[in-house]
Write a structure and sequence with these properties.
alpha/beta, 2 domains, 17-stranded mixed beta sheet, five-stranded antiparallel beta sheet
Length: about 425
């Protein structure tokens, strides 16, 4: 016979095992649910990331498409990708990718930035037989849409990209010890960043839709516009037929900051307080499309000492941007230009013909893009030496409506 004590022990063990079984069953079910939730979250996240890449690739190949709307099935789930233009002259695009799987939703948001030419310290379509030589230092990213020519040991502090090949004399060797050009960052060949033929005309369009255009009423005849930036945020300008300068706030003259001379020449100097892009457009160099820098062009707040400066200037021309003193008597020993400079079918250089001796230096703090790179002195060294320094703010910002290549960069990616 089984005693009462034995029955109590058996009953106790039964209760304990029953409770334990429920506990372990709950843990087993919770573990299964956690694994399922983790699996679902992983799958839906991968769908969203894949969709973001699908959308970004579509925009990369279809540069002028900004309102993307794509849906599809992927990994037993679905996705949708939409994009929209961010208001403003920078023309950046936000892309939103949403993935859905088994009732779970995840998203990825990307901001795509136009591939502005101001991303480069110096960019040219061709070197036209010239070479970077010993003593030359390029302080920022460099791009050549062709071959890069070097002589001796020039120093390249930023990333160098070239569509063609490196022609180095002596032949390049990274060493140690290094021989030939000195690359302190990456050297990448086979990278093409062509200059769109519509680069300056797109700036003209921006001026027509929110800035100001000074139109030559008789294309083919001389038309000179004189523009001086003032440190108080105003602009003084004079066009043919005006007896004296007119001074007005930059934001009043050109609300979006874009000022273009159409079929004429822009004469430029002054101290910029604000954001602006100025320039000259023409379909023929015989009657315009040139910018003459006649004095210093400075920022009211110097970004070389104040990286938070919001002053920013773009200078664009269908043909040349030249340091061009009005006369020998007005010629300066040194010139400083704070700007991103863009010359579509010409170059940036100086009119050194009136210089009869070596002068000082032309310092550009910003960015220079041109079909080629012009000279600032002659073979006798009459003229100015050049000192080109990159404005690092251009790595994330650009002057209003500044020209860009038909490409995007990923500015930010949120998951």
């Amino acid at each position: 016979m089984v005693g009462r004590g034995t029955l109590i022990v058996i009953l106790g063990f039964s209760i304990i095992f029953g409770l334990s079984s429920q506990y372990w069953n709950r843990n087993r079910l919770a573990a299964t649910e956690n694994m399922t939730e983790y699996y679902d979250a992983t799958v839906v996240h991968n769908i969203a990331v894949s969709a973001a890449n699908i959308g970004a690739d579509s925009l990369f190949w279809n540069y002028n498409t900004t309102n993307l709307n794509v849906t599809g099935d992927l990994s037993d789930g679905t996705y949708s990708v939409t994009s929209a233009l961010i208001p403003g002259l920078d023309s950046n695009v936000t892309l939103t990718a949403v993935g859905s799987y088994d009732g779970v939703v995840d998203s990825v948001i990307i901001v795509l930035r136009r591939y502005y030419f101001s991303l480069f310290a110096v960019s040219m379509q061709t070197m036209s037989g010239i070479s970077w030589a010993t003593g030359d230092t390029i302080r920022g990213p460099l791009h050549v849409e062709g071959d890069l020519n070097t002589s001796g040991s020039p120093v390249f502090e930023g990333e160098v990209t070239i569509a063609g090949k490196l022609n180095a004399s002596p032949a390049y060797s990274p060493g140690p010890p290094p021989v030939g050009p000195i690359f302190q960052d990456n050297l990448k060949t086979g990278v093409s960043v062509p200059m769109p033929a519509s680069s300056v005309s797109s700036v003209l369009n921006a001026a027509q839709t929110g800035g100001i255009v000074f139109n030559n009423p008789s294309p083919g005849t001389a038309y000179n516009v004189y523009l001086t930036f003032n440190s108080n945020g105003t602009v003084s300008y004079k066009t043919p037929g005006m007896a004296a300068d007119s001074t007005v706030a930059l934001t009043t003259l050109a609300p979006n900051g874009v000022i273009i001379v159409n079929n004429g020449i822009l004469h430029l100097q002054g101290t910029v307080n604000g954001r602006a892009t100025v320039g000259a457009y023409s379909s023929s160099s015989s009657w315009g499309g040139q910018v003459y820098v006649e004095g210093n062009v400075l920022y009211n707040s110097d970004p070389s000492t104040n990286p938070n400066s919001t002053d920013m200037l773009g200078v664009v021309a269908s043909y040349n941007v030249l340091v061009n003193p009005p006369s020998a008597a007005q010629m300066q020993n040194n010139y400083t230009i704070d700007a991103a400079i863009f010359s579509q079918n010409g170059d940036f250089g100086a009119n050194y013909s009136m210089a009869t001796q070596p002068m000082g230096a032309i310092t550009v703090y910003g960015s220079i893009t041109g079909y080629s790179l012009g000279a600032t002195e002659n073979s006798s060294l009459d003229g100015w030496t050049s000192d080109y320094r990159y404005d690092a703010r251009y790595s994330s910002k650009t002057p209003p409506a500044y020209p860009s290549a038909y490409r995007y960069l990923i500015a930010s990616w949120w998951e």
